[in-house]
Amino acid sequence: xxxxxxxxIEDTMKAPETPPSDKSLLAHSLKKFTGLFERGHTxxxxxxxxxxxxxxxSEVFDLLSLxxxxxxxxxxxxxxxxxxxxxELSKKVAAIEYNCAPSELDSAQEKRIYIAAYQVHIPYLAxxxxxxxxxxxxxxxxxxNFDRVHHILQILLDALGDH
Length: 163
Fold this sequence. Notes:
Layout: H1 9-13, H2 22-38, H3 47-53, H4 57-64, H5 67-78, E1 84-85, H6 86-98, H7 107-127, E2 131-134, E3 139-142, H8 146-160
Helix pairs in contact: 2-4, 2-8, 5-6, 5-8, 6-7
């Protein structure tokens, strides 16, 4: 049985053997970084807090693997006031995706993002306690795991020079 050497920050910056696309580079970096993060580079937590924050590296990778979920996390992080309505959140995510001001979106663009956020991405992030979701009032807020997942996302984006 071979002993695994701990990953270093430098390891996460090494280029893979084959040149990846931008998305696969992020995916590759996410896999390496979440492994590093889980091997002792996390903040110290109490036992009760730790149980709430336990996300496997594969879960963090999966949560951040889609740009739309990354955008949801960015929008919630940048929100001056939370909770945010699903409609407002979706509009800001659409503006990020279409690289325009929210006022420049057409209704089809807004609706496309709203449906995907409402039906897929928000529930998925809520299940992992990254966000909280009040379905009756259609409000989204930061969850117990939000800061950790946002922190990992921000470090990765900084390392890749992709803000």
